[in-house]
């Protein structure tokens, strides 16, 4: 089938300038003789207006030039049109792109759009909200909320907010129901991951696979502060999936499931794909296996 691409460029994601990106997109796509159009991303993340254009003009690919929040919005709006999705990582974290092996270099990422292979990729629902990368409650969500208020985006801002929050980090009480078990715990954070990382190749669920039909759940429990950094580092380097019942006494519980329910009575903050969201007292989370087609390196 002859390809036709719509590029969506987020003017505010990450810190890198977007004018040279647009030139690169235009010149490389013309070189490949592929018809295309460049549009800005939408601040409200609603791309349903593109559905008729995709159908009428025979658009085959939507390429998001932005971060995880932009990918979430485009896939959520347009997955049912059966287009393939590509990513040119321009965000602050780019967790989904890096988990798929898409590099930061825009020219190389565009080559993957042209020559890569579209693979079925999982997503998930948090109550009725769409997620395709990672959802978090607690520490990392607090950072995501503060990040959204900053005038400057990018990795440096993330790193400094993370460090600042580390010293004041607190725990929240959670009740988790998964795989036929119910357990209560105080935790610094809970990550529900489809991608293996928060972004910037900072892995939190090292064994997560984008297309295995499973969610990787990481619960970092209440432990003495001096041990927290070491515990997270051990999880990042060598976290191993265990049955919940075999890890309830460990500082980190790391398990896989297709669905879970989290009671969040103390209203720990929530993020979905790095975007701050109004928190929920009860979260019902369910994987959507092979929900969309993401272009990966060949
Ligand atoms: N045209 C636009 N003008 C202003 N803001 C926009 C526009 N399009 C999208 N946004 C905002 O951009 C944010 C999403 O940014 P994106 O995910 O692309 O980058 P990031 O947050 O820097 O990176 P990451 O999600 O990888 O950490 C959303 O809050 C969205 O409202």
Automatic annotation (TrEMBL):
SMART domains: DAGKc
GO molecular function, one term: metal ion binding
Gene3D superfamilies, per the entry: 2.60.200.40, Probable inorganic polyphosphate/atp-NAD kinase, domain 1 (3.40.50.10330)
GO biological process, one term: phospholipid biosynthetic process
InterPro entries: ATP-NAD_kinase_N, Diacylglycerol/lipid_kinase, Diacylglycerol_kinase_cat_dom, Lipid_Phosphate_FormReg, NAD/diacylglycerol_kinase_sf, YegS/DAGK_C
Keyword Magnesium in annotation: yes
Positions of the DAGKc domain: 1-130
Any one GO CC term of the record: plasma membrane
Cofactor(s) in the UniProt record: Mg(2+)
PANTHER family: LIPID KINASE YEGS, SPHINGOSINE KINASE
Protein name: YegS/Rv2252/BmrU family lipid kinase
